[in-house]
């Protein structure tokens, strides 16, 4: 279910991945009347953000001369966060974002720690060791950020209010229907980004990074959105982006939620976990989800998707 034109989305993604601006670039969206999610690049109406992306260069300590002339070793690191800030750049005097800057610093200066020989002996699962082995000979050349929901806000605890105000004021359709269209537009955008990444880069590593604080009325939307997005991506992985690798940093405890990017400087192989289909969702039971307009609407979406899966299994 994609409310904006697929080919237009691909075109925007390709344009963003081709850009070599050292500070990065962004793809924003807007919600015109009837709330059909659309794409915009550059300045204009910015109600949602689909992508923040930048080329990267490893720091001197992380550079490997053997890799510099080997384009087959390039790696695209895609981070999935909570919701976007107003940032239009990864860094710069204006328009930059601290979280994005922290991520860029980690990948450029410390990424080698993730696959270093000392960390390979860390007590991690066989799947994780295999993943680390696959990226050990890669050089990260691009870093991108997408999010569970594309609503722009520096404070994730304000997303419920922002969503209600934005969707109720711009669409004649019910709030839940409007939210569902926007969620699927964002999820489908991520799918297209992953497809394009597999065509352009030797390998793609997706890092889940929406943080451990995902409960309560203010942040409960994170938990529901994460379950919905992971189900969406798992359903499409084999056909759309079979080679993409998924993982997250869990503070040494694989039962925890993905750590937020603010802890990027502490990331290393010892607490990196591969995200496989067998790994259970790390979220509260749906019956324990808090209540707000946004959570309730997402919960209804989740219940419908679950019912659909159960019906397919029964048939």
Word description of this protein:
The protein is of the alpha/beta class and 315 residues long. The chain has one domain (6-314). It has helices spanning 6-18, 98-110, 117-120, 126-135, 159-170, 175-200, 216-240, 293-314; strands at 25-30, 38-41, 48-55, 74-81, 139-147, 203-208, 245-249, 272-274. An eight-stranded mixed sheet has the order 2-1-3-5-4-6-7-8, sandwiched between helices. Helix 6 (175-200) crosses helix 8 (293-314).
- Summed over residues and divided by their number, the pLDDT gives a mean of 79
Strand neighbour order, sheet with most strands: 2-1-3-5-4-6-7-8
User: How would you describe the shape?
Assistant: globular
Whole-number total of structural domains: 1
The biggest beta sheet, please? 8 strands, mixed
Kindly state the percentage of residues in helix: 25-40%
The structural class is: alpha/beta
Report the uncertain regions.
41-45, 60-72
Order of helices and strands: HEEEEHHHEHHEHEEH
Q: What proportion of the residues form beta strands (DSSP E)?
A: 15-25%
Distance between the ends? 23 Å
What integer value in Å does the Rg equal? Answer: 19 Å
**Number of DSSP E strands:** 8
Discrete helix count: 8
């Amino acid at each position: 279910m994609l409310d904006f034109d697929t080919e237009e989305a691909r075109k925007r993604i390709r344009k963003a991945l081709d850009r070599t601006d050292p500070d990065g670039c962004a793809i924003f969206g807007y919600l015109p009347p009837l709330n059909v999610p659309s794409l915009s690049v550059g300045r204009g109406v910015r109600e949602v953000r689909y992508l923040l992306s930048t080329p990267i260069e490893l720091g001197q300590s992380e550079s490997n001369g053997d890799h510099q002339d080997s384009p087959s070793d390039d790696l695209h690191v895609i981070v999935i966060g909570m919701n976007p800030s107003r940032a239009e750049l990864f860094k710069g005097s204006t328009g930059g974002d601290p979280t994005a800057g922290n991520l860029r610093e980690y990948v450029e200066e410390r990424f080698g720690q993730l696959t270093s020989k000392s960390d390979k002996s860390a007590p991690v699962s066989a799947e994780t060791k295999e993943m680390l082995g696959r990226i050990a000979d890669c050089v990260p050349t691009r870093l991108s950020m997408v999010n569970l929901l594309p609503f722009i806000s520096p404070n994730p605890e304000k997303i419920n209010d922002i969503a209600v105000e934005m969707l109720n004021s711009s669409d004649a359709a019910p709030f839940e229907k409007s939210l569902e269209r926007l969620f699927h537009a964002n999820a489908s955008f991520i799918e297209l980004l992953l497809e394009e990444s597999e065509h352009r880069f030797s390998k793609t590593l997706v890092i889940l990074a929406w943080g451990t604080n995902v409960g309560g009325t203010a942040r409960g939307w994170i938990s529901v959105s994460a379950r919905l997005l992971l189900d969406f991506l798992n359903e499409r992985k084999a056909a759309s982006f079979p080679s993409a690798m998924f993982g997250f940093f869990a503070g040494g405890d694989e039962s925890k939620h993905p750590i937020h990017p603010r802890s990027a400087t502490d990331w290393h192989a010892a607490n990196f976990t591969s995200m496989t289909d067998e790994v259970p969702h790390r979220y509260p039971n749906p019956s324990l989800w808090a209540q707000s307009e946004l959570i309730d609407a997402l919960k209804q979406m989740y219940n419908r998707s679950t019912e659909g899966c159960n019906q397919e299994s029964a048939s």
